[in-house]
Design a protein that fits this description.
Elements lengths: L3 E6 L5 H11 L2 E5 L26 E2 L13 H17 L3 E5 L3 H8 L17 H11 L7 H11 L1 H6 L5 H14 L3 H17 L10 E7 L2 H18 L1 H17 L16 H11 L6 H40 L6 E5 L6 H17 L12 H16 L7 E4 L4 E4 L1 H8 L2 H37 L1
The structure holds zinc ion.
Family: Belongs to the IPP transferase family.
Function: Catalyzes the transfer of a dimethylallyl group onto the adenine at position 37.
Pfam families: IPPT, zf-met
Length: 459
C-alpha cells in the first residue's frame, strides 16, 4: 500500500528520534529533509543525529554535500527524494522523511505547489532570496499601490479585480508572478484550480502519495524555548566552537586563495556559524584584549540562542500556515498528527506509542482517529486551525468598489451589506439631490443660453 511517513516540527523537538523509532518498528529507511544536515563534517552545528542513536537505520541525504558545494535547490531535493522513495519501496521498506526545512518536505508531500510542478521551481531562486532580488530587477514593484494596480490591470485584469486597490502586498505578488514567470497569475491559479478539481474528481487529493501520515512533534511554547536554550548549551559542550572555528579557517584559506565564497547561502547561514563569525574575526586582531574577546564570545552565544528560538518559531509558523493551508486545500488535514513532546520523560507514551499505533492503523487500511483526540495540545492547536479555516473567506473573493462612497469591499457579502448600510443610503440620497440640483442648474443655464438663440431663430 506504499505508505509515506513524514516527521516535521521545530528544531529541538526530537524529530530525528521519532523517525528512528518509526523506521525501526516498520522496517523503514530515513530520508533527511534538513538542508543544513546535508553538509558533511558539521554534525554539531547542523544538529545531525549521532551515529550511535541511529539504531542501524540507513539515513539518506545526510552528510552528502561538501563545504565548497552549493546548497541543493529545492527542485534537486525533490527529484532525489522521489527517486529514493521509489528505491526504498523497491526494497520492500518504508520511507520516513524527516527534517526541519519544511518547504523541502512540502515539495515532496504535495503534487502541485505554487508555480506548478517541474517548471519554474526546478532551478529557481530559493524563497529566502526571492523577495530581495525581484524589486531590484523590476523597480516598479516598489511603487505605491495605485501604480502597482495600474500595471496589474494592464497585464492581468482578472487578478487586478480580485484585490483591494490598497492591498499593495497582494497586488505586488501578482505582478511579481507575472514578471517572474511571464504568465498571468490568474492563469496559473486557474490551471492549479483545474488540476485540483481533476485530482478531486479522481479522488486523489493533492497529496503525492495516498497513504501519507505526517507527524508534527510539538511542545508547549515555554518548554520548547527552554529546550532550545539548553540545546545551545549542549552544542557548546559537544564542540560547536571547534566546528565553527574550522569553518572560519576554511573561509580564510579560500580568501587568501582569492576565492570568494557566497556567505548568503548554504551552510554559511547556518545558526551557530554566522553568529560566531564576529568572534573569530576578532581573534585575528592582535589589539583585542582577553576581556574584550570573552565579552564578544558571550554576546555571540547569546545571539545563537536568540536565532535558534527565532528559527524554531518560523518553523512552527510554516506548519501552521503553509503546510496547513496545503493540507486544507487538499482536504487532508486529518493526516497531520500533532504529538505533544512537552513531557520528555514520557516520550514512549506521548510520542512513540501513539505514532506507531497510527501507522499500524493506516497499514491495516482502517480509518485513523481524529487528530484532535490525541492530546490536549493537539486539541487546542489543531482545533484553532480548523476554526480559522472555517471562518476564512474564499481566496477567490472579488472586490467591489462603490463609486458614490469611494469605498472598496472584498466579497459579495460585504458588498450587499454596504448597499443596505446607512452610510451608503445617505450617500445615495445626497448624490441624488446633487444630481437633481446639477440638472436644475444645467437646465436653467441651458435655457438662459438657448433663450436669445430661440428669439433669434424666430426673427
Ligand atoms: Zn456606497
Amino acid at each position: 500500500m506504499d505508505p509515506l511517513i513524514a516527521v516535521v516540527g521545530a528544531t529541538g523537538t526530537g524529530k530525528s528520534k521519532l523517525a528512528v523509532d518509526l523506521a525501526s518498528r516498520f522496517n523503514g529507511e530515513i530520508i533527511n529533509g534538513d538542508a543544513m544536515q546535508m553538509y558533511r563534517g558539521l554534525p554539531i552545528i547542523t544538529n545531525q543525529i549521532p551515529v550511535d542513536e541511529r539504531n542501524g537505520i540507513p539515513h539518506h541525504l545526510l552528510s552528502c554535500v561538501d563545504l565548497d558545494e552549493e546548497a541543493w535547490r529545492i527542485g534537486k531535493f525533490k527529484k532525489e527524494t522521489l527517486r529514493l522513495i521509489e528505491e526504498i519501496r523497491a526494497r520492500g521498506k518504508t520511507p520516513v522523511l524527516v527534517g526541519g526545512t519544511h518547504y523541502y518536505t512540502q515539495a515532496v508531500l504535495f503534487k502541485d505547489q505554487l508555480v506548478g510542478e517541474g517548471s519554474e521551481d526546478e532551478d529557481g531562486p530559493e524563497p529566502s532570496t526571492e523577495l530581495v532580488s525581484t524589486s531590484e530587477k523590476w523597480p516598479i514593484l516598489d511603487s505605491p499601490p495605485e501604480v502597482l494596480m495600474e500595471k496589474l490591470t494592464e497585464v492581468d485584469p482578472v487578478m487586478a479585480q480580485r484585490w483591494h486597490p490598497k492591498d499593495a502586498r497582494k497586488i505586488r505578488r501578482s505582478l511579481e508572478i507575472y514578471f517572474q514567470t511571464g504568465r498571468r497569475a490568474s492563469e496559473i491559479y486557474a490551471e492549479q484550480q483545474m488540476m485540483k478539481n481533476e485530482a478531486v474528481s479522481k479522488n486523489e487529493g493533492l497529496l503525492r502519495f495516498d497513504n501519507t501520515l505526517i507527524f508534527w512533534v510539538h511542545a508547549e511554547k515555554e518548554i520548547l524555548n527552554s529546550r532550545l536554550n539548553a540545546r545551545v548549551g549542549d552544542m557548546l559542550k559537544q564542540g560547536l566552537m571547534s566546528e565553527a572555528q574550522a569553518m572560519s579557517d576554511y573561509l580564510r584559506d579560500k580568501r587568501s586563495e582569492g576565492i570568494d565564497v557566497d556567505l548568503t547561502r548554504g551552510v554559511w547561514v547556518s545558526i551557530g556559524f554566522k553568529e560566531l563569525a564576529p568572534y573569530f574575526e576578532a581573534l585575528q586582531q592582535p589589539e583585542k584584549s582577553e576581556k574584550e574577546l570573552e565579552e564578544l564570545r558571550l554576546t555571540c552565544i547569546e545571539s545563537i540562542r536568540n536565532a535558534t528560538r527565532q528559527y524554531g518559531r518560523s518553523q512552527i509558523k510554516w506548519i501552521r500556515n503553509k503546510l496547513w493551508k496545503s493540507l486544507s486545500d487538499a482536504g487532508m488535514t486529518h493526516r497531520l498528527y500533532l504529538l505533544d513532546s512537552s513531557d520528555v520523560g514520557n516520550w514512549k507514551t506521548c510520542i512513540t506509542e501513539p505514532s506507531e499505533k497510527l501507522v499500524q492503523t493506516m497499514l491495516d487500511g482502517e480509518p485513523t482517529p481524529d487528530p484532535k483526540s490525541l492530546s490536549e495540545l493537539a486539541k487546542t492547536v489543531l482545533g484553532a486551525k480548523e476554526e480559522q479555516t472555517r471562518e476564512k473567506p474564499e481566496s477567490t473573493t472579488k472586490c467591489f468598489t462603490c463609486e458614490i462612497c469611494r469605498k472598496t469591499m472584498a466579497g459579495e457579502e460585504q458588498w450587499k451589506i454596504h448597499l443596505t448600510s446607512y452610510g451608503h443610503k445617505r450617500g445615495l440620497k445626497s448624490a441624488a439631490k446633487k444630481a437633481e440640483r446639477d440638472a436644475y442648474f444645467r437646465k436653467t443655464e441651458l435655457e438662459s443660453q438657448e433663450a436669445p438663440e430661440s428669439e433669434a431663430s424666430k426673427v
